[in-house]
Automatic annotation (TrEMBL):
It comes from the Bacteria. This is ClbS/DfsB family four-helix bundle protein. The lineage of its organism: Bacteria, Pseudomonadati, Pseudomonadota, Gammaproteobacteria, Pasteurellales. InterPro entries: DinB/YfiT-like, DUF1706.
C-alpha cells in the first residue's frame, strides 16, 4: 500500500503492518525469538526492534499531547535534532538491554493501541494538511504519525524478515 493520505488509510496500514509484525514474530519458537540477529546493526534481537518502536511511540505521544495543550514540545527531546537522533536511538537501545522480550512485546502492543486510539481523534484535514498545526513545522501531523507507525513498522518487518530468512538458512546447514 502506498503512503497513507487519509486517516482511514493510516489506520488500515498501521494495523496491517502491526498484525504482519506479530504474525512473523509468532511464527518463531521461543528460542528463535530470543536469538541474536546474525547480521550487524544497532538492534541485535527482536526485543531491541520492539523497544525501539515503543520508544518512538512515546516520542509521538508526548509530542502530540503536549502541543495540543499549548505546551510547545519538539518531537525529538533536547539535545537531539534530526542530525543527531541516531545517538538517541542508541540510548533507547542501552536503556532496554535488561528489558525481557515479554515486557517489550506488552509495552509495544499497549503503545500501539494507545497511538491508534489517538489517531481516531483527528480528521483528514488536521492529519494531512501541511502546517495545519504550527508545531509540526513545514509538514503535517500525519507525517509524524506515519513515521512512528506504518512506515516504522515496515522497517521492523524488513529486519525481522531478514532474521527469519537467516534462521531458515542456518537450519538447512
Amino acid at each position: 500500500m502506498p503512503r497513507p493520505k487519509t486517516k482511514n488509510e493510516l489506520i488500515t496500514l498501521s494495523q496491517q503492518n502491526f498484525e504482519k509484525l506479530f504474525s512473523m514474530i509468532n511464527s518463531l519458537d521461543e528460542t528463535e525469538k530470543q536469538t541474536t540477529f546474525s547480521f550487524e546493526g544497532r538492534d541485535r534481537n527482536i526485543r531491541d526492534v520492539l523497544v525501539h518502536l515503543y520508544e518512538w511511540h512515546q516520542l509521538l505521544w508526548k509530542f502530540i499531547q503536549a502541543n495540543l495543550m499549548d505546551k510547545y514540545r519538539p518531537f525529538l527531546p533536547e539535545p537531539y535534532n534530526w542530525k543527531t537522533y541516531p545517538k538517541m536511538n542508541i540510548e533507547f537501545w542501552q536503556k532496554h538491554q535488561s528489558t525481557p522480550l515479554e515486557k517489550a512485546i506488552a509495552d509495544f502492543q499497549e503503545s500501539h493501541t494507545k497511538i491508534m486510539a489517538l489517531i481516531t481523534q483527528f480528521n483528514d484535514e488536521n492529519l494531512f494538511t501541511k502546517k495545519y498545526y504550527s508545531w509540526t513545522g513545514s509538514t503535517s501531523l500525519g507525517s509524524y504519525i506515519i513515521s512512528s507507525t506504518s512506515s516504522h513498522y515496515e522497517w521492523a518487518l524488513k529486519i525481522i524478515k531478514k532474521q527469519i530468512k537467516s534462521l531458515k538458512n542456518l537450519s538447512t546447514i
